[in-house]
Amino acid sequence: ENDVCDGIEMVNDSIISTTTVALKWQPVVGVENYVVRTVVPDTDFERLEVVKTAGIVLFDLIPDTEFIAEIVPICSIEPLIKGDTYTHSFMSGELPECAPITNLIVEAGAVSALLNWAANDNAEAYLVSYKEKDATDWESEEVSFTNSFELNGLAPETNYEVAVSNICSFRNRHTSEAVSIEFVTEAGAIICE
Predict the structure, then answer these.
(1) pTM for the predicted model, two decimal places
(2) Do residues 113 and 183 lie in contact, with contact meaning Cβ atoms separated by under 8 Å?
(3) What whole-number distance in Å separates Cα of residue 132 and Cα of residue 145?
(4) Which of 10, 42, 82, 115 is the most exposed place for a label (fewest CB within 10 A)?
(5) Phi, psi (5° rounding) for residue 185?
(6) CB atoms within 10 A of CB 64
(7) What is d(CA 92, CA 148) in angstroms, rounded to the nearest whole number?
């Protein structure tokens, strides 16, 4: 029985999609398994997988990110006989551009405002945030699945700012830059009995 396990000579990678990359290498003679450890430098991202073939498809990767794959050929488990670790760096796919919304209009009442904007075919939804004009923190972040949204519970005669972004991918947390607009609510009605 051979107590030496050769190492991998070279790894090729190919991007299949934004979050999927295939790694392939020449088979090593006498290998039972390959252990593939995938990491993102300086983060907690780590994945450990075992394959019998000279290649692996890595799914659910973070888009537009540099990864390092460490591949170890295992020729025997009992006793453990392994080859040298081969380290290969690769990039995942880039996200397509996520364009900002257009034609944002506000129809303000005394205690509510109706927002409308041009629909975007690439958007899965829209992120709507609002606040009083001089406030530092956004009061609310809501998701709208249509190209309109109604804000309620506003104060009369108050300056507000609203911001709307396209959500191009929930899964990848991919949003456009926000488009914002300022508006003033109308005076409230005085009700006399």
Answers:
(1) 0.62
(2) yes
(3) 24
(4) 42
(5) -75, 155
(6) 14
(7) 34
